[in-house]
Structures are given as structure tokens and as C-alpha cells.
Specification:
heterodimer, A: alpha+beta, Rossmann fold
């Protein structure tokens, strides 16, 4: 599929801070794309630049081969859903949603039709005469969403849309967003710092750090084949062992651990990534240690085992097999399941 | 009666001028200033001693060869009332979410349209409160009016003052009561208005 939105070499500097450093991303039509990263990584700056609320120092952005940056914010076929929702407090739900359509000077009947349709889609038709202050967090979020999609933008930008909601509402809204994206056939670009959210919702993810794109991949690829230590650490839960590579082993903190087949030459610095679900408990193991604590996560528990490393080893374990805290655990894993990355 | 009419003219004109200029100043301060120094200067007339302001203004008007009359009182009152409007509107502006204006632009509104449809309605209660405050401040202001007014157009406080010099008559009590009631009424309206708007 050819690229729809093309960002090439986008850079932006605020005083001493390089918010965006030569960022290039290609986003496909009808894709649900996530910009993921820790706070201050430049993801929001990029989103605002796409909306036209921020200028770039350099770089080119094209939408369906047309230059986007020369178009002022109020004429871009792009709408942003704000983190704070930015609902107009003096207007009711209906007028908030109709605001953008009225600016397009559409005739009244069409505005009315489109506003009603979108309010039905987000199940807010009964609240259309309410003011934003009379709505719950989830309802406000849906008004903000309705207000943005009613304009039928080519791209919908969402800035941390779910961060203000509690966990249960959040997962409902994630499903809702995915359904809407599918129905509306609009390209969605979501900014989030929550890797679980990005993993569950997006078709592809761009992971950013310090103004640069670290990796662009599908959630599965990013989890199973992280490019760098940063990606491995940020995506999912993992045990990281930094050390020096030997023949089929890595020496880390005075201990040796087996490594998977690798093209990294022996003697260089490397990081071994071990996912908690790849480790199993048994009678014997590669490493052993005392169970320090176990955290219950619904279907499974995450065990923290002290094996003499600086960090506790995280192991995921089925609920009915959690050993008592303080007992000795023997940990083993298939070396082929672990991931070896070069360390700078 | 003449004095009462003069006072109303001054108070209404002062209110209008200080609302417009004070709001513009507040928006300018909120959006475009880099340092807080300018803000302090803008609010100075509100805390400056009336007497010093009055003498300064009189000196300015004489050096400009401006004839004294209601217009000079209006200019003087607008100067210090504007500072109050600015302070109130500035406070409101700092409370409203700046992404509201960005959202309006994002939805396709022009900068001018955004100002009238989003910014102005958001700060309307503050503008009304500031305007009513300006009106009451101007209504019973004596010192500055005394210095900057011409002899043929006395405002009500000046009329009352000249009457008091010949002893307190029932008329003065009546006038003072009227002024007090008007001021109290307006302050009450201003307070209610701000409260109602805040609930929305």
C-alpha cells in the first residue's frame, strides 16, 4: 500500500530542547497509527504540527501528495481531538458538534442531519442539550470525538484521548475508537504514553524517544523483535541483562547466561532480553533465587525473584502455581525465546 | 440635577472606554507579553494614590493645552478604571483553557471568528463585572474629577462637596443615599452575574 501521509525529516527545536529530530514516518490510508513514547519525546509536538498548531523548523509533510504545511490550521483536512477535550463550555453538546460544520457554511438541514447521525453513533443523542460541565468524563470524551469526526477529516489526530478516563471506561473506549475508525474509514493517529493502549489499539506503532523515531512496526513485531534496548524496555515487561558476549553465552554481573543464535560478534557489549512469560518454574533451572513478592494481575501473577542480580527477575506464573513468598524458585527458559541486542 | 447628568455621562463613557481598552490590554498581556514587568505597569493606575494621579493628569492636560471639562474627566477616569477591568479580565483569561481557541481553529474557524465566538463569550462575565466596577468607581470618584474637571460641568461628587461647604442640608443626605444605593445595586448585580456564569 502506498503512503498517504508522508512526514520527511521533521525537526523542531525549543531553545535547548530538540523536540523533533529528523523524524520521518509514512502512514497509510485508513490506518490506525500510534505515536508512542515517554513524556517529552516529541510525540505531541509532531501531532500539533500535523494539525497546524505548531510550525516545524524543517521537514516536509505531504497528505496524498499535496503539501500540508503550507495550509493554515483552519483549512487543513485534519482534525485534532485534544487531551483536555477543549469542549466549548458556553455551548451545549449539539452546538459543540455543529461548530465545525457551521464554519463550512453548510446548509442547516445537512448540518442537522450530520450532527444527529454522529451523536447517535457515539450514543449521546439524549444529552444533546446539555452543557459540557454536566457530562461525565467518558461523555465529554465522546463529544470531543464526535466534534472531530463530524467534519469527516482525512486524518483524525488524537492526543492522549483516553488518559483522563478510569481503566474500565478506557478499555471500552478503546474498542469504541477501533470500531469508529473502521466504520468511518478515517486514518487515525493517536498519541499515547501508555504502551498497553498502543499495543491493543494500533495497526502500527512508531516508538519515539528524545525527539527521534526508534522503531516503526506492528505491535507484534515490536514486542517480539525490538530493535534496541529502549524498545525492549518500553514495550511490555522484560528482564534486561547488559553484559559482554562470549561464545553462546553472555557474561552479566559476574554470571553467565545462555544466548540465542546471533550475528553480534563475541566480545562486544550486548543486552539479553527475557520476557517474563518465556520463563518457567521447575525443579531445576538456569538460575535460582528466592521469591520476594508476587503481584496478582487477574489471570496470572507476576513474580519477583532475587537471583543475585542487581534487579529482581520478573516471571509470569499461572495463578494456581504461585509458590509461597520466601521459597526458592528455579528458573529456566529456552535460549531461543530470548532476544539479544547490541548495546552501545 | 445637572451634576447627576454629568456624572452619568462620565460614568457611562468611562465604562465603555475602560471595557474596550481594558479587555484588549488584558488579552495582549495574556498572549503576547514576555515579562511580567509590563503587567505591573498596566495595573499601576489601580493602586496609584488618587491625588498623585490627579495632579499628574492635570499637569499633563495643562501642558498639552487641553481645555478641562467632562472629556478630561472621562480620560482620567478611564485611565484608572481600565486597570481594574484589565485585572479582572486577565484573571479570567488565565483560567480558560488555551486549547479552546486552538480547537476552534482546528474546526475551521478564522482567528477573528474564534475571538468573537469563543474567546469573548468565555471572558464575558469578567468583562461585565469589570465594567460594572468601572461604573461604580467613576460614579462616586471625587479627587481626580475635582482636579481635572472644568468649572462649568461639575460632576455629582463635586456638586455635593460645594454644597457641604455651606452646611449639611437634607438634599445632600438624599443625594448621598441615591449614590450609595446605585453603587450597592451595581456591585450586587456584578457579583451575581459572575457567580451565575461560573456555574455554567
Amino acid at each position: 500500500m502506498s503512503s498517504f501521509l508522508n512526514i520527511a525529516g521533521a525537526s523542531k527545536r525549543y531553545g535547548d530542547v530538540q523536540a523533533l529530530n529528523n523524524v520521518s514516518i509514512e502512514i497509510r490510508e485508513n490506518e490506525f497509527f500510534a505515536l508512542l513514547g515517554p513524556s517529552g519525546c516529541g510525540k505531541t509536538t509532531l501531532l500539533r504540527a500535523l494539525a497546524g498548531l505548531e510550525s516545524l523548523d524543517s521537514g516536509v509533510v505531504t497528505l496524498a501528495n499535496d503539501d500540508l504545511l503550507s495550509v493554515p490550521a483552519n483549512k487543513r483536512p485534519v482534525n485534532l481531538m485534544f487531551q483536555s477535550y477543549a469542549l466549548f463550555p458556553h455551548l451545549n453538546v449539539y452546538d459543540n458538534v455543529a461548530y465545525g460544520l457551521r464554519r463550512e457554511k453548510l446548509d442547516k438541514a445537512e448540518i442537522d442531519q450530520r450532527v444527529h447521525d454522529v451523536l447517535k453513533t457515539v450514543a449521546l443523542i439524549d444529552q444533546k442539550d446539555r452543557r459540557p460541565s454536566q457530562l461525565s468524563g467518558g461523555q465529554k470524551q465522546r463529544v470531543a470525538l464526535a466534534r472531530a469526526i463530524v467534519k469527516r477529516p482525512k486524518i483524525l489526530l488524537l492526543d492522549e484521548p483516553l488518559s483522563a478516563l478510569d481503566k474500565k471506561v478506557r478499555s471500552e473506549m478503546q474498542l469504541e475508537l477501533k470500531r469508529l475508525q473502521h466504520e468511518a474509514g478515517i486514518t487515525f493517529i493517536i498519541v499515547t504514553h501508555d504502551q498497553e493502549e498502543a499495543m491493543s489499539i494500533a495497526d502500527r506503532i512508531a516508538l519515539m524517544d528524545k525527539g527521534e523515531v526508534v522503531q516503526i512496526a506492528t505491535p507484534v513485531e515490536m514486542y517480539s523483535a525490538p530493535k534496541t534496548k529502549f524498545v525492549a524496555d518500553f514495550i511490555g515487561t522484560s528482564n534486561l541483562f547488559a553484559g559482554t558476549l562470549g561464545a553462546g553465552v553472555i557474561t552479566t554481573q559476574g554470571k553467565t547466561l545462555p544466548t540465542p543464535a546471533t550475528s553480534i560478534s563475541a566480545g562486544s557489549k550486548a543486552v539479553l532480553v527475557l520476557r517474563p512469560e518465556d520463563i518457567s518454574l521447575g525443579a531445576t533451572g538456569t538460575i535460582s533465587g528466592k521469591l520476594v513478592s508476587s503481584n496478582f494481575y487477574g489471570g496470572s501473577s507476576l513474580l519477583f525473584v532475587d537471583c543475585g542480580f542487581d534487579q529482581l527477575i520478573k516471571v509470569s506464573c499461572a495463578l494456581n502455581q504461585v509458590p509461597p513468598v520466601g521459597s526458592t524458585c528455579h528458573l529456566s527458559w529456552n535460549a531461543a525465546d530470548s532476544i539479544l541486542l547490541a548495546d552501545s | 440635577m445637572e451634576g447627576f447628568k454629568n456624572t452619568l455621562i462620565v460614568a457611562i463613557a468611562t465604562t465603555i472606554i475602560s471595557i474596550v481598552l481594558g479587555t484588549l490590554l488584558a488579552i495582549g498581556l495574556a498572549r503576547y507579553q514576555k515579562s511580567s514587568g509590563l503587567e505591573a505597569v498596566a495595573l499601576t493606575p489601580a493602586i496609584f494614590p488618587d491625588l498623585a494621579l490627579a495632579i499628574g493628569l492635570l499637569a499633563l492636560f495643562t501642558s498639552l493645552h487641553l481645555t478641562l471639562g467632562l472629556h478630561s474627566v472621562i480620560i482620567s477616569h478611564a485611565l484608572f478604571c481600565m486597570a481594574f477591568v484589565t485585572a479582572i479580565v486577565r484573571g479570567r483569561l488565565s483560567q480558560i483553557d488555551s486549547s479552546l481557541e486552538e480547537a476552534a481553529q482546528d474546526l475551521g474557524d478564522t482567528p477573528v471568528g474564534t475571538f468573537f465566538r469563543i474567546t469573548l463569550p468565555s471572558i464575558k462575565p469578567a468583562i461585565i463585572a469589570g465594567g460594572l466596577l468601572a461604573f461604580t468607581l467613576s460614579l462616586d470618584e471625587f479627587v481626580i474629577a475635582f482636579f481635572t474637571d472644568g468649572p462649568s460641568t461639575p460632576t455629582l461628587p463635586i456638586v455635593i462637596y460645594s454644597m457641604v461647604r455651606f452646611g449639611v442640608s437634607p438634599e445632600i443626605n438624599a443625594l448621598a443615599t441615591v449614590v450609595l444605593l446605585i453603587s450597592a445595586l451595581i456591585v450586587t448585580i456584578a457579583q451575581r452575574n459572575v457567580k451565575v456564569q461560573d456555574q455554567i
